[in-house]
Amino acid sequence: MKNFNIVDIIIVLGVIAVLIVGVVTMKHFRQTADKQIEATSAITFQVFLRGVTVTGEEFPIKAEDKTFITIRNVPYTELNVVKVTSQARQTAVPSQRVKEQYVLINDPAQPAIYDAVVTITDTAKITKDGAVVGGNKIKMGLPVTLEGENYKFNGTISDVRVSSNVNMEDSGANNLVG
Length: 178
Hints:
Layout: H1 6-26, E1 39-53, E2 66-71, E3 74-88, E4 90-94, E5 102-106, E6 113-127, E7 130-133, E8 136-137, E9 143-147, E10 152-168
Antiparallel strand pairs: 1-6, 1-10, 2-3, 2-9, 3-6, 4-5, 6-7, 7-8, 9-10
């Protein structure tokens, strides 16, 4: 025992711990990341773009185009745009009609400011926690960036829908609701 110092003991204990984790993983007592994927499915998610400044005649993102998406500042890939809804900023003005208390009109103080919802589709891995795209869980509130030939907009995911056509990869995924 006089020939061993504290560093030697720590190294031996570390090697023993790694061997124990390896044996537990091989005997399937510990679930690894690839075993958590239950299925693969098509998903659609909506990105809400708030306060986008567009001085051109039309909104630059169009349905059936492709847009490059960045999730949490990590570039992912080009995805298909399914639908785009954009609307100029509006303000409430008191109405002179008896039935209506107010009327919405385009805000004259912000003529080039738009709010938009862009619907995008992709294939995701479905886990117990939700859909995973590009190594990121796709959930409402997730910040994303949409980039095209002449635009780069920051937005947040406002809706996620998993398709009912789910491809089962594991026989234990029969209780998954799409």
